[in-house]
Amino acid sequence: MTYVDDIPLYDLFVMRYKGLRLLLSKSAGRELIDIGIELSDCKKWLEYGYSAPRERSASMEEKWFDAGEKTYNIVIA
Full-prediction pTM beyond 0.70? Predict the structure, then answer.
């Protein structure tokens, strides 16, 4: 049986995609704040977005997501 005290608090607020923690750089965080997007939106776009037409290295993944007339680009390494 798992008790609430056994779950580290920081794991409750960590976003993950394919088992990897999603962390923002300072510049990416500023851009998200400027356009009003949260990290949970980025996770959703990684799951439901479509692959970019250009190739990245094997350790990187790039997804695009259309919202209205804009296309957002998310790159994870």
Answer: no
